[in-house]
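seq as requested:
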Amino acid sequence: MRRILIKSCLLISLFYVSAFSQVPYNTEPGWLSEYDSYYGTGCAIDDVNGDGFPDLAVSNGNDMVQAPNLIYFTPDGFMSDSALWISANSLYSGHCDLGDYDSDGYPELAVSNYISPGWEPELLDIYDNTQGALETFPSWRSDDSLYSFRLAWGDADNDGDLDLAVATGEAYHAQRKPNLVYFNIDGIMQSSPGWVSADSDASYDVKWVDIDLDGDLDLAFCESGGPVKIYLNYVDSIATFAGIQTAESDNYNSFDFADVNGDGFPELGVAANTQFNGTGLFKLFANDNGILDSLPFWTSADSGFGSEAAFSDVDEDGDFDLVCGRWSGPVFIYLNDQGTFPAYPDWSSSDSYTSVIENIVFGDFNRGGERCYRTVYPSPRSRLFYLSRRQLTGVDSVKIDGIAVGLEDYCYSLWDGWISVSVSVSDSFEVFYRYSLSRDMAVTNWDTETYIFYNASIPFIPGDANDSGRLNGLDVTYLVAYLKGTGPPPATRFQGDANGSCDVNGLDVIYLVNYFKGGPGPFAGDCD
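struct tokens:
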């Protein structure tokens, strides 16, 4: 059945209080891709074609096979089983990232290519996006060939546009290389790096993070056989030697940053692998007022081929939980209890879906739990702003000192929830953004299909069209006005769907009226 697309949503001014503080995923996925032999490695979520729904980009190949990259679109909220975009080139690709570097409202796809045939280095790729149509062969390629497994969009120089950081090196053949940043100059990506680290490593992940909350994005890398390193940003330049690093060297494979104890400073979560004498543990490092502890305050009780670590507020209780994966293992979720974590996971996926996990990302593909928010920062002291949420659905508009600014004046990260602006802020910074209370979890892996665990929570009352928290006659009035075109839409996509049809129409009005006369109660449809 066709699903209605609500193109706007009500502004939510109060914080949502979770009614389901538990892991909202079934242990088996609800969606599987039709491709199972491409060695899926990277994935990223954003609205690539501009239809209002998040799409899933997957980069493939790793060091196993030359394969194309794919995008799965979600027309009307239904995830396609087959990729509706396939790159024209097939390479040994590592991870990918989506970001709108040319400020036209449509994200480009950047891809790290790990190796080329014969274990030689390969070029980086960016696929340009023109009004929602992604080119199939990359028009931007780096000048030099690299061993690169992961990359990340971020604003290195606080000018309001996206630059590209690249983790380089390759541990299996001891190829230790300097890490790089390619700068964006007025919407044009430079093909040679503008920042090069002074040291050389075999780095397997890279993140932008304001570790010391001084108003700029620092640059972090995790490496095989070494520490996690953070290069501090001084606004006018990024240090070429790490200013912060962990005391422990390990075979680090993936990491993420989020404030897990509520003090505003981001902590480090990292996955280590047992290859090359690594511990194979998941670890958490505390951040004490901008100084990252050199030793972890938490480690997992078990170990293995750790390959992915990510933070997400899985149970929507206001803090960030740790989500991890291993090669030949399930997905693990460790719930955050006021800054403490259990030694063993609170949830793991079914053993039927044990796989060589590479990447885990979150997004609400049918927008069923999406809401709109407004945040105001009075008298800010910087041009970098972190929201309280991560894994956003979208950033809709920005006002500086009460005046709306265009896309050319700011950039953002949906995953990390930061916004960077190019102009100084005197009095106030205001942002309107979208966030979902019901995010799905997508997983890429080598040995089976890409899969999605759909979020089973219902963060609203079906039929509560006006979002009052209760059902009454005002919901009927609200729906009638919306359907006549004289009123706003329901707060979330299916909140006006009283009869579980996955659509919003006059039958929902009739269903509500009958309910108030003693008929059956409204219910949520199975709309994934």
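The chain has a mean pLDDT of 92.
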